[in-house]
Amino acid sequence: MRSSFQALLLSSGLGAAALLLPAPASAHHAMAFLHMQPGPLAGIVSGLMHPVLGPDHLLFLLAIGLVA
Fold first, then answer.
1. Radius of gyration of the CA atoms of the chain, in A
2. What is the largest CA-CA distance in the chain?
3. For residue 63, what is the DSSP state?
4. With 80 as the cut, is the pLDDT of residue 21 above it?
C-alpha cells in the first residue's frame, strides 16, 4: 500500500514539475525560412499556413469542422 502511494506521489510531483517548467517558445514562424518580403502576399500565405504548421491549430480546426 505504501509503495503505490509513493509511486502516485512521485508521478504527481513529476507531472506538476513538467507543467511548471517553462517550455521553449516557438517564436520563429516557419514561413520566415521562405525569405518572403513583408507585405500583403506574405501575410496571406502566413495566415493560410498557420493552421497547418501548428498541430494544435490543425486539431482545433478539425474539431470545429466535426462539430459544425
1. 20
2. 64
3. H
4. no
